[in-house]
Design goal:
The complex is a heterodimer of chains A (112) and B (273). Chain A has helices spanning 4-32, 38-46, 48-76, 80-111. Chain A has 112 residues and is mostly helical. The longest helix of chain A has 32 residues, at 80-111. The mean pLDDT of chain A is 94. With 273 residues, chain B is an alpha/beta fold. Chain B is globular and about 70 Å long. Classes of the chains: A mainly alpha (112), B alpha/beta (273). Chain A: It holds the Pfam family Sdh_cyt.
Chain lengths: 112, 273
């Protein structure tokens, strides 16, 4: 039976790979939007392809973050109970960030 | 929780002894500070200081043998071949793991020389560490040929297939790499916690695992990969690369581990498709 360890590893590398172009794009966009008005910002976020890329970013970042923090938990927390609990809290935290990010983008797109 | 500090009885405390050289005149004196621990006394470890005339001495092991012969016969350390083949004399020398027999005094600069046991290993006495767990981990990867064929004479291998084992088979199991790895420090030995099934095998065992995975004569590749497909056995390696930096044979366990991970990802892909 295939273990989840390799899936976990592959997912970590894949999300890291996805984030390289997305984060470069986001940083360049943020710099180019310095001084923009609120309306300009809303218009930018609500552009369909910008919204799609932002959603992709808000999905990949929390997933990558939770995998990374999960590795730290596996490294340093040895007691199984404490480890499982911390893994659970880590997943909830990442899920919340993802939900807040994605719903914000959708909300802005619908409002603008 | 991982043990981030030394247990109380492992902390270096107390006054170490100082041994002065009797050499006079233009002697090439060097100060050598050595970790000492005697389980029979019940005392914490200490650092003893030896002033040694290094005239005619080029290697750290020669220096240690001189200390034992001329200054302090109670100093305990392992050594055998004195030419980088047996892997017995691996210590932490001036903060870096390596073989005393292949480390030249000229490589250590001009200051004091500090010699400690291999890091994060149970100390039997002075510089002698307990490598039982390390050897168990090596044995767990089944480091021997397992072939379905029974050849008449021998298992044949082409020069190209044999070449794939270069950089893998040369390991002398000195434990320099594994004991330099922080992941191995935290997860290499969980016997006290009863979590033996959640131990990281360490760079040395994984390098050997890769050596047998790559061997064209071996028929247990799938079983070997399946055994390593584990969060703790393999994936505690975070490519810190200390193993590569310290290997006295110039091997690259990190690359071997990366290759095992790559093979596991491919194997996973094949299972999905």
């Amino acid at each position: 039976m295939a273990s989840s360890a390799t899936k976990h590893f592959a997912r970590q590398r894949l999300t890291a790979l996805v984030q390289v172009p997305l984060t470069i794009w986001l940083v360049i966009s943020a710099i180019s939007l310095i001084g923009a008005s609120r309306e300009d910002m809303l218009a930018w976020v609500s552009t369909w392809w910008v919204a799609a890329l932002l959603v992709a970013w808000f999905l990949s970042v929390p997933l990558h973050m939770s995998i990374g923090i999960g590795d730290v938990i596996d490294d340093y927390l040895h007691k199984k109970g404490t480890r499982s609990l911390t893994h659970g809290l880590n997943s909830i935290y990442a899920l919340l960030i993802g939900i807040v990010g994605v719903t914000s983008v959708i909300a802005i797109t619908l409002i603008a | 929780m991982v043990e981030l500090t030394l247990p109380r009885n492992s902390k270096i405390s107390g006054q170490g002894k100082t041994y002065k050289s009797e050499a006079k005149g233009d002697a090439k004196l060097r100060t050598v500070r050595v970790y000492r621990y005697d389980p029979d006394t019940g005392e914490n470890p200490r650092i003893d200081t030896y002033e040694v005339d290094t005239d005619g001495i080029s290697m750290v092991l020669d220096l240690m043998i001189k200390i034992k012969s001329d200054l302090d016969p109670t100093l305990a350390f392992r050594r055998s071949c004195r030419e980088g083949v047996c892997g017995s004399c691996a210590f932490n020398i001036n903060g870096k793991n390596g073989l005393a027999c292949t480390t030249g005094l000229d490589e250590l600069g001009k200051g004091d020389i500090n010699i400690y046991p291999l890091p994060h290993m149970p100390v039997v006495k002075d510089l002698v560490t307990d490598l039982t767990k390390f050897y168990e981990q090596h044995a767990s990867i089944q480091p021997f040929l397992q072939s379905d064929e029974v050849p008449e004479k021998e298992h044949l291998q082409s020069p190209e297939e044999r070449e794939l084992l270069d950089g893998l088979y040369e390991c002398i199991l000195c434990a320099s790499c594994s004991t330099a790895c922080p992941s191995y420090w935290w997860n290499g030995n969980k016997e006290d916690e009863g979590l033996q099934d959640e131990e990281y095998l360490g760079p040395a065992a994984l390098l050997q695992a890769h050596r047998w995975i790559k061997d064209s004569r071996d028929d247990r590749t799938e079983e070997r990969l399946a055994q390593l497909d584990d969060t703790f056995k393999l994936y505690r390696c975070h490519t810190i690369m200390n193993c590569v930096q310290v290997c006295p044979k110039g091997l690259n366990p990190a690359a071997a581990i990366a290759e095992i991970k790559r093979m596991l990802v491919e194997r996973q892909g094949q299972k999905v498709t």
